[in-house]
Amino acid sequence: MKNTDSVPREKKKKKRNLWPLKALVITFVLAAAVNAASTLVLEDSHWWLATLLTVIILLVGVVFDMIGTASTACDEGPFLSMASRKVRGAKLAVKLSKKSDVVSSVCCDIVGDVCGIVSGVCAATIAAYTLNLNGSFWWTVLIYAVISTLTITLKAVGKGIAIKQANKIIFGVAKALSIFRKEG
């Protein structure tokens, strides 16, 4: 029998959490791309186009917030059962539920927040357009208030739905994403 007290133990390497750095890069690139695209679309555009773009961006933010919330609220068990039966998308659903911290961060914090900020930029464009049409200060305030209220209210409603329908949402996302992945 060996005396293990005199044998030097190997030090375990600490695994570095690089997620914050990755999140920084993803956020910067996504924010720059979405802002550049929306600025190009909104430049010299009509108020209805700015309104349409605002609604689209707002809805994208709500959907991604729902996905992020659902990932933290879902139950992994049904996905494991489906994966054992080789149901398409189930393995990816297991991964999404196991990596809920990253999924939530990407969907809620990165995509959701970027969409919220860009919808604010769109609101500024709509407000500027209405001011050019002899709009009043209060009309501009009303535009910002409506867009902010819609953003927060729709996200709150979406999160409630996401908590109640978490497994359905995550499995739907996994099925949709499995089209682009080979499961084996």
From the structure above, extract its key features.
single chain, 184 residues, mainly alpha, 0% strand
How many helices? 7
Q: What series of H and E elements makes up the topology?
A: HHHHHHH
Shape: elongated
Computed structural class: mainly alpha
Distance between the termini: 45 Å
User: What is the residue-mean pLDDT, rounded to a whole number?
Assistant: 84
How many strand segments? 0
The biggest sheet amounts to: none
Percent of residues in β-strands: under 5%
Name the poorly predicted regions.
none
| Helical amount | over 70%
- Structural Rg: 22 Å
What would your notes on this structure say?
The chain is mainly α. The chain is built from 7 helices and no strands. It has helices at 19-42, 47-73, 76-84, 90-98, 100-132, 137-164, 166-178. The protein is elongated, with a radius of gyration of 22 Å. The protein starts with 18 loop residues before the first helix and ends in a 6-residue tail after the last helix. 30% of the residues are buried. The model has no long low-confidence stretch (mean pLDDT 84).
